[in-house]
Prior knowledge:
This is Nucleoside hydrolase. The protein has about 300 residues and is α/β, with parallel strands linked by helices.
Amino acid sequence: xxxxxxxxxxxxxxxxxxxxxxxxxxxxxxxxxxxxxxxxxxxxxxxxxxxxxxxxxxxxxxxxxxxxxxxxxxxxxxxxxxxxxxxxxxxxxxxxxxxxxxxxxxxxxxxxxxxxxxxxxxxxxxxxxxxxxxxxxxxxxxxxxxxxxxxxxxxxxxxxxxxxxxxxxxxxxxxxxxxxxxxxxxxxxxxxxxxxxxxxxxxxxxxxxxxxxxxxxxxxxxxxxxxxxxxxxxxxxxxxxxxxxxxxxxxxxxxxxxxxxxxxxxxxxxxxxxxxxxxxxxxxxxxxxxxxxxxxxxxxxxxxxxxxxxx
Length: 311
């Protein structure tokens, strides 16, 4: 058997984060060594609870979960209750998890693991980049020790989901994204555009998953609020699985068909374009590339793998 890849998942555990965590824990090719939480979709306390519950639902193994930053670097904390529910999990009113948080701060765990698994650690960031930015600011040496950072964030090459140009994770803490983009970490962005169109779970996919197993039912049920939101947004109850798509790219990088490596920057000042991430993929500015932005994925294979790892 090939050596398992080493993952750390950084999450603001909303409903689609939960599905992404379950996918990773069900994939035999990787070992999730730790989960760190960050405020974003919900409060840090709720993110902690949801992360623990997600691991328990997966039913495989229990990685340690550590609490991270409870607010953005500079800005007021804003949640995404309209998308994921007041509890981040479709208002399921879930019982308390059987497991507890592990001792230690998420920022220090990221630093320690980057040094421990020098050149092997892959991080999947599913929420605002606050923890990653703080870790780099505290220990700049880890930037070259992280093998790869996969980020669910940006609007990609299309409109955003919280403004005409911005996506929630980046918009919630654009200064953190700025730090990460300037850090030297080898980073891959999976924008919201990669989660729409034929990447979505359609009614027939949802109906199948809802009844197939207890785990897949949980994956659908916790996304009830997102389905309701999407019925108004797209005209039918579909699911744009943002974090699961990013996790799929991290788990199976060969899903990427086109992804320019280019100079990329984030807007941190303008109110109208706050959080917009610009990928200069035509090299207009002539600056050194610092990030990879997914532009086209193998969506049929991706959906098949995603659904298989929700069962």
